[in-house]
């Protein structure tokens, strides 16, 4: 992408506090590497927009965002203003589906200087990817409520696993595993209890693994897989999972590295037919919003992933190295936020990382 055009969408809560730090880091990389990246800011996909307009986004959001090479996104959700399923299905989930961002790529890495809640782990010991299916599976709007307000009331919601949808996320995950030194892929399943969709998932993993003879493949049911994330996180390299399982694993993984606040993600359309979206794994954190104590690293690292995706890996690496350098200095020498044991504000940490770039 030459002179990439970026749509910046802060959303709600701490999304509005961490996005400026993400942009600050991107601007620093932009200058250093002469990328010519341009940013436009949008206020939709937020509960504030909903309060003004009665909907989360303007009707032409798709055409508006199609003009951009990527979307740099904060977080959405203010459950005290609007039920989460309304705000999220009216914004983020529309992006993921409308722009066919079927890969949700979520690195899990223990970073220097971040205290690990698991005993005896050092940077390098935990370093894997969760590859989450991002457009179908357990997240569906197929179903409904019958006989409301009667004693026969019930709700049904279907899970949808299409052959194309399953195969393309598996293909991406196997390709990624094959490109890494360990060449190891783990599939998250639950085919002992969820008796139709998960056996199908296993069947497609098995079929795909035949095309990747050099990739060591294994599978765990999601319950014991969650346990192994805590007990043996060094066992993993690429973990591929359905939409819901991937969602859970991609909070659990970063929690095992000390804080979910540093975790980045890319909602990617690998074919490049539509813009991809880069955002932290965490949400809008209404419990700390307004105090400027949110850790901006998840947002900043998401910016590094965006630069990688846009074809500027050197610039992406420069941002990531700056994050590592500032973290490694520790709270006595670097302005770290409270979740990292420091007392600094969101923008102090953002400025330190931008300076290190
Ligand atoms: P959350 O990730 O917002 O917060 C969970 C906990 O982690 C909170 O205690 C919060 O203070 C802390 N935390 C999160 N990010 C942090 C950061 N950068 N620095 C320091 N601490 C941080 O999850 P939640 O509380 O379940 O959800 C809050 C809202 O965000 C809900 O509306 C939810 O639907 C939404 N949400 C949105 C996204 C998204 O936009 N991608 C992701 C997750 C949750
Ligand atoms: C995430 C979030 C979203 C998801 C929510 C907010 C709909 O938790 O990006 O991980 O479940 O995908
Ligand atoms: Mn999540």
UniProtKB/TrEMBL annotation:
Entry EC number(s): 1.1.1.83
Sample GO molecular function, one term: magnesium ion binding
Pfam families registered for this protein in UniProt: Iso_dh
Main EC class the enzyme belongs to: oxidoreductase
Named cofactor requirement(s): Mg(2+); Mn(2+)
SMART domains per UniProt: Iso_dh
Keywords noted in UniProt: Manganese, Metal-binding, NAD, Oxidoreductase
Keyword Manganese among record annotations: yes
Reactions listed under catalytic activity: (R)-malate + NAD(+) = pyruvate + CO2 + NADH
Domain Isopropylmalate dehydrogenase-like as annotated: residue spans: 5-353
InterPro entries, A to Z: ICDH/IPMDH, IsoCit/isopropylmalate_DH_CS, IsoPropMal-DH-like_dom, TTC_DH
Annotated PANTHER family: D-MALATE DEHYDROGENASE [DECARBOXYLATING] (PTHR43275)
Family affiliation: Belongs to the isocitrate and isopropylmalate dehydrogenases family.
The protein, known as: D-malate dehydrogenase (decarboxylating)
Organism annotation: Polynucleobacter tropicus
């Amino acid at each position: 992408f030459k002179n990439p055009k970026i749509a910046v969408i802060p959303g709600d809560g701490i999304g509005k506090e961490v996005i400026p730090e993400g942009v600050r880091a991107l601007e620093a990389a932009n200058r250093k590497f002469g990328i010519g990246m341009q940013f436009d800011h949008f206020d939709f996909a937020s509960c504030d927009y909903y309060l003004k307009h009665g909907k989360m986004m303007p009707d032409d959001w798709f055409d508006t965002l199609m003009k951009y090479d990527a979307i740099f996104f904060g977080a959405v959700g203010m459950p005290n203003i609007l039920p989460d399923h309304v705000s999220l299905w009216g914004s983020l989930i529309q992006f993921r589906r409308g722009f066919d961002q079927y890969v949700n790529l979520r690195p899990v890495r223990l970073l220097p200087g971040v205290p690990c809640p698991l005993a005896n782990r050092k940077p390098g010991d935990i370093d894997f990817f969760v590859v989450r299916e991002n457009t179908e599976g357990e997240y569906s709007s197929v179903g409904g409520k019958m006989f409301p307000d009667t004693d026969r009331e019930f709700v049904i919601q279907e899970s949808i696993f299409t052959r194309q949808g399953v195969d393309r996320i598996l293909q991406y995950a196997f390709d990624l595993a094959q490109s890494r030194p360990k060449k190891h892929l783990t599939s998250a399943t639950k085919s002992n209890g969820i008796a139709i969709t998960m056996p199908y998932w296993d069947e497609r993993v098995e079929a795909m693994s035949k095309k990747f003879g050099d990739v060591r493949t294994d599978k765990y049911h999601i319950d014991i897989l969650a346990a192994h994330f805590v007990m043996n996180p060094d066992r993993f390299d690429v973990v591929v999972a359905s939409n819901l399982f991937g969602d859970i694993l991609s909070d659990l993984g970063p929690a095992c590295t000390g804080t979910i606040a540093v975790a980045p993600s890319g909602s990617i359309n690998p074919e490049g037919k539509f813009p991809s979206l880069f955002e932290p794994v965490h949400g809008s954190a209404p419990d700390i919003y307004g105090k400027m104590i949110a850790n901006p690293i998840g947002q900043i690292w998401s910016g590094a992933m965006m630069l990688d995706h846009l074809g500027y890996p050197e610039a992406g690496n420069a941002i990531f190295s700056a994050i590592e350098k500032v973290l490694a200095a520790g709270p006595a020498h670097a302005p770290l936020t409270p979740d990292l044991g420091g007392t600094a504000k969101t923008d102090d940490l953002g400025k330190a990382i931008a300076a290190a770039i």
